[in-house]
Design brief:
By secondary structure, this protein is an alpha/beta fold. It has 19 helices and 5 strands. The protein has 3 domains: 1-127, 3-Layer(aba) Sandwich (Rossmann fold); 129-160 and 206-282, Alpha Horseshoe (Serine Threonine Protein Phosphatase 5, Tetratricopeptide repeat), CATH 1.25.40; 293-448, DNA Cyclobutane Dipyrimidine Photolyase, subunit A, domain 3. It starts with a strand and ends with a helix.
């Protein structure tokens, strides 16, 4: 008898409830990862995410082998591939940690129902969110649309469970099971290889995630509240890619932070991630449709391809915007304060649909996920949850004076802006701000009607 552990966005051994359930059966365990780019509704990973996935899977496979286990890699529609591996392994049970995006939930629910009819033991677990989306409700029994009462309701629930220990042994199957070679999946860029900056800045995998958490709690937590808005300071945890891929669980982050007796603001940012996923659970089309339908009336002009390209390349002539977009391209990451500023500039100064920005971030961020990425873009656009005032327009020049007063961040990523002849902006900030406010009047009128 053999059990399958289907790894998805939980590429870790510690605090992995699905893995723990399989090990509790005291029988061989087969780890499985399916690269599914064919099932209906599944979104193909962006380039930066594919780079991270390659290295995270390599790390997970090595860690399983060190403990006697194995990681099988297969590519194709998950429903078909899972059944094939169950047959190849003569497995009688399969375990996974839950997913919350719409297409993935449909796949999982369909598999669970059909496999149980075939006498395969199936169980799913809470491994990726502190609070399940169906457990956090308003007094009227509906979902929350504003963060503060949402987080207050979360904190009123029983505290998140303690993290599970990392297993010392993972007994593998007696016979080898066919697996794809990770290198054959083509997840890494080659022509050209644009990932040098990613390699310089990141260590994908569970060990790297644990090291970043320890370093953050020991060295940066005390200055997080003050420094998290300053892009030139190393005051944030930089754990978002590891949370996205499940190399570390939110339960581990929660309990290790609570143990310090500090970090309430940091934990509320973990709560913001929960809010994004809960919103996606209730609105599966978050990446393509306005959460607030009155924003369907927003009068987007015809797409200006030149303006979009200038924004993508960091050639807008606005120092903080250009610095942020170049940081993104080089590292696959951008400071959160700057993310809000560059998003506001694209939407409200260039009047380019937020979905264009969401797609670019999906392709270039190592931490882009199905919830936080579209949720954040809709928040900035004003079409999403908790987006008040919806007409907020970040002034990138004022933001630079406030959060990068000595231009440390700008000089690092867009040094020409600190020179004697800085580039000219492609649009006038004042005029385009007024244009955006006029466009938002259409939304206001639609809401009144």
């Amino acid at each position: 008898m053999t059990s399958i552990v289907w790894f998805r966005d939980d590429l870790r051994l510690a605090d992995n409830p699905a893995l723990r359930a399989a090990l509790d059966r005291a029988e061989p365990v087969v780890g499985l990862y399916v690269l599914d780019e064919e099932s209906p509704g599944i979104r193909r990973l962006g380039g930066a995410a594919r780079w991270w996935l390659h290295h995270s899977l390599a790390s997970l496979g090595e860690r399983l082998r060190e403990r006697g286990g194995t990681l099988i890699l297969r590519r194709g529609p998950a429903d078909r591939v899972v059944r094939e591996v169950l047959a190849d392994a003569s497995a009688t049970a399969i375990f996974w940690n839950r997913r919350y995006a719409g297409p993935e939930r449909e796949i999982d629910a369909g598999l669970k129902a059909s496999l149980r009819e075939e006498s395969i033991a199936v169980a799913s677990f809470a491994g990726s969110l502190l609070f399940e989306p169906w457990t956090v409700k308003t007094g009227g029994g509906t979902h929350f649309s504003v963060f503060t009462p949402f987080w207050r309701a979360c904190l009123a629930l029983p505290a998140p469970r303690a993290p599970l220990p990392e297993p010392r042994e993972v007994p593998g199957p007696a016979q080898a099971i066919a697996s794809d070679a990770l290198e054959d999946w083509g997840l890494l860029p080659t022509r050209p290889d644009w990932a040098e900056g990613l390699r310089e800045n990141w260590e994908p995998g569970e060990p790297g995630a644990r090291a970043r958490l320890r370093e953050f709690l020991a060295e940066d937590l005390d200055r997080y509240d003050r420094g998290r808005d300053v892009p030139s300071e190393e005051a944030t945890s930089r754990l978002s890619p590891s949370l996205r891929w499940g190399e570390i669980s939110p339960f581990t982050i929660w309990h290790e932070t609570v143990a310090t007796g500090r970090g309430a603001k940091f934990l509320s940012e973990v709560g913001w991630r929960e809010f994004a996923w809960h919103t996606l659970f209730h609105f599966p089309d978050l990446a393509t449709k306005n959460l607030r339908s009155d924003f369907d009336a927003f009068p987007w002009p015809e797409l200006d391809e030149d303006h979009l390209a200038a924004w993508q390349r960091g050639n807008t002539g606005v120092p903080l915007v250009d610095a942020g977009m170049r940081e993104l391209w080089h590292t696959g990451y951008m400071h959160n304060r700057v993310r809000m500023i560059v998003a506001s500039y694209l939407i409200k100064n260039l009047l380019i649909d937020w979905r264009q920005g969401e797609e670019w971030f999906w392709d270039t961020l190592v931490d882009a996920d199905s919830a936080s990425n579209p949720f954040s873009w809709q928040w900035v656009a004003g079409s999403g949850a908790d987006a008040a005032p919806y007409f907020r327009i970040f002034n990138p020049e004022l933001q630079a004076k406030k959060f990068d007063p000595d231009a440390v961040y700008i000089r690092r990523w867009a040094a020409e802006h600190a020179g004697d002849e800085p580039p000219e902006p492609i649009v006038d900030l004042y005029a385009t701000r007024n244009r955006a406010l006029e466009a938002y009047e259409k939304v206001k009128q639609n809401r009144a009607e």
